[in-house]
Specification:
Strand content of chain A: 15-25%
Order of helices and strands of chain A: EHEHEHHHEHEHEHHEHEHEHHEEHEEH
Mean pLDDT of chain A: 94
Number of strands of chain A: 13
CATH architecture of the largest domain in chain A: 3-Layer(aba) Sandwich
Number of domains of chain A: 2
Helix content of chain A: 25-40%
Radius of gyration of chain A: 22 Å
Low-confidence stretches of chain A: 251-259
CATH topology of the largest domain in chain A: Rossmann fold
Oligomer: homodimer
Shape of chain A: elongated
Structural class of chain A: alpha/beta
Chain lengths: 405, 405
């Protein structure tokens, strides 16, 4: 008999809790697994021995269904950067102490590429010290920027929200008779995946987004203004999708960095809005989809939620088969009919790496997305959950605040 | 036999097209009505004789179902302020010319309080000149600030989006272990209805929104900062809902005015974010729900859409019964079971007037909403449309751009 622990890390998505459900449901089926501990605030809960027994909180299948449709991380999150063990072994000793004291034989870490760095370091440390605790990474990020895997859990739901919302913004922006420009700023850090997904609207027969700017392409303000003028000659209401990480002249971005040395990106939409107003002088508005694009589970992709649960479950099986230092990944077999298989990859191939949009997805003018990309995006946004409602509003599964403090 | 015309005006909502469906479906049932003309860009289409024959564009019941779930105004919109006929009779003559040339016996104007001003002026002019053309107003606005009517078509869907999205933002904002403040700026112009609706979350067991500021209550920056500090003592992640129209120190709002002399309101969320950062120094984020709160029909209220269609249909019956210069209104008979009846009221009672939150809805500290308000809001957000999807995205009914130019 052994116990297991699971933690959630990094920025919220609609699918992190579905992966927790996958770990939980799969672990329940395994006779040799006893307690399923949730670590509060990611790896920080392991370091500080702040674990909660999930079986006491999740009592019914209905609880699991609610958890599947609840956005963000029910166990809290962190942006903790695990130091190298050579620099600071103390924290590793604390982790080992908690895991041994709680008789934990496998630890599942649901997170982005920074969390996969933790999986990599921790499993290497355990191997070095002959500690038999499996460490498995379950990927997640709306940015879709993890290597090896075809796509990341959470991306499909974010893309579905972005596309559907942009579709609605297109309707909203085109009502008046005067020409206008609407600039929508979309997340994704240094990768343009989420912004590029907005081009799915072309498959629905929309001319919008008329311009799409991703960090992987060349960008200049003069070219942008020229692109806008060209589109205004053709369309009354021009809609532009731009990645938060698109490189712009100095001074736009705040320069503040997080614990991983990443810059907080924000503000390009507002900046471009002001330049259009100043240099073109037409009606212009910028819209930040903000955190809604990562937490709007009321419009999640069923494919994404189902896959996110499945990849969590596959992580448990991987650990039971002796895997450690692995990250679970999707390999796409076919676009149509859409088929994926779940495999595992070495965490060191994924940790701290970023995957960018293929060049062939971006048009030669560097200002839109080619149709070839659509067969990649479309399968990921299919299907709708049967969302449980309470008083007209989607219901969430939560853990009382006092247990998380 | 006669023809009729219908137009849409003002800012988009999720329900304006449903009211158009109501007018269209009801008119189809009436043997004495022949053509149903849509006026492009509100009253501007009547002035310039830019009408389209809707029966040639809307061919099936499926078209109507799609139109019901399409946000914004399929016929375009305007913010045209009809002058007094004493000041400028020319425009009235153009309107009469179009209506007579097209043999239009009734004109239905779907819009907010400014459009009801048009209904009022036009019907008075027709009466004065013994012109037998009925003019009926069908209300709409997410701001819910029209007098006489219990609520306005479009408000329920906007409220449902605001409440559900705030719920998701609450999940998103509470993941990290450090204290934080999240400020959500909500539309509604000078009325706090939409912002106040966010308090429905309390009925779902949420402590958030911890603070709610509406234009009808007293506001001061010092008191706000003190309120935030008090809430931070109790909650790790404080969530604040604030109306765009909440009065703040000078210099925050842009001062730009539209054709009706209304100030464009925006920026209080950002302003309060900066003050919290500067004076409290904690993690803080502001979020503008922006146009999404008026066009996110993927999460509309079925009650709202059904009522919006019904009030459009009732407008047609009112005109056939000889009504003119009237605005259709809801009178609530009961909260639970929720019952409303549709009546008509004189347009002059509604034109240019605003309705504000009752004082008893606002708590004595001027920083939240009392539970007594919930029975008003709850019925308006109930039910979900069976949204038609295409490739994973809600489908829209549109009219080709060339016909709208």
């Amino acid at each position: 008999m052994m116990n297991i622990a699971v933690a959630q890390s990094g920025g919220p998505t609609c699918a992190i809790n579905a992966s927790l459900v996958g770990v939980f449901r799969e672990a329940l089926k395994v006779p040799e697994i006893d307690a399923i501990f949730g670590s509060v605030n990611g790896i920080e809960g392991i370091i500080s021995n702040h674990l909660i027994d999930l079986k006491t909180l999740i009592n019914t299948n209905e609880d699991l269904e609610l958890l599947r449709q609840t956005p963000s991380t029910v166990l809290g999150s962190c942006r903790y950067k695990l130091p190298d063990s050579a620099d600071d072994e103390e924290v590793y000793k604390k982790i080992v102490k908690t895991l041994k004291q709680r008789r934990i034989g496998a630890f599942f870490y649901i997170g982005g590429n920074d969390s996969m760095d933790t999986v990599n370091k921790l499993s290497a440390y355990f191997a070095e010290h002959s500690i038999d605790i499996k460490v498995i990474g379950i990927p997640k990020t709306i940015d879709n920027d993890l290597c090896v895997t075809d796509h990341t859990p959470g991306f499909g739901s974010a893309a579905k929200y972005v596309i559907a919302t942009l579709h609605e913004i297109v309707r909203d922006s085109s009502v008046y008779s005067i020409p206008s420009v609407t600039i929508v700023e979309i997340m994704g850090r240094h990768a343009g995946w989420l912004t590029a997904s907005s081009a799915v609207l072309h498959a629905l027969g929309e001319t919008a987004p008329h311009l799409v700017y991703v960090p992987e392409a060349e960008f200049s303000l003069d070219k942008f203004l020229n692109d806008v003028r060209n589109q205004m000659a053709k369309h009354k209401a021009v809609v532009v999708a731009v990645s938060e990480g698109t490189e712009v002249p100095e001074g736009v971005q705040s320069g503040v960095v997080d614990n991983f040395g990443h810059k907080y990106l924000s503000g390009i939409g507002k900046y471009l809005e002001e330049e259009v107003r100043r240099q073109i002088g037409c009606k212009v508005r910028s819209i930040e989809l903000n955190v809604m694009q990562r937490c709007s589970s009321h419009l999640c992709s069923q494919t994404d939620i189902d896959e996110s649960e499945a990849i969590g479950a596959a992580g448990v099986r991987c650990a039971l088969d002796g895997g450690t230092g692995k990250v679970m990944v999707f390999r796409r077999v076919n676009d149509m009919p859409y088929t994926v298989v779940i495999e595992s990859a070495d965490a060191e191939l994924i940790a701290n790496e970023e995957k960018f949009l293929p060049r062939e997805y971006i048009n030669s003018e560097d200002n839109n997305i080619n149709d070839i990309a659509l067969s990649y995006f479309l399968p990921l946004i299919q299907g709708d959950l049967n969302i449980r409602m309470d008083m007209g509003i989607p219901k969430h599964f939560t853990i009382q605040e006092s247990l998380l403090r």
